[in-house]
Write a structure and sequence with these properties.
Layout: H1 32-38, H2 43-54, H3 63-85
Helix pairs in contact: 1-2, 2-3
Amino acid sequence: MTNNVYDRDQDESIVTFSKTNPKHYQHGRIQVWDFIVDQQLDFLAGNVIKYICRAGHKNHESELDDWLKAKAYVERKIQQLSHERNR
């Protein structure tokens, strides 16, 4: 998906660094936020995807840090779904 929030090279295949699209989200051919929007994920599920995709790629943060963040969002999503089911 092309938009002007982030910059692409001339052939649209390589995304370049910007503050709204940092390097730790530039792996693969699909932008993480484009996938989250396409799949219509909510905040909790979207953050699980975000932290898994950037795990081990963000400077000054360990891969474990991102996996623990993803786990926290999974656990919160499970709480939410369990609460809704028990109403």
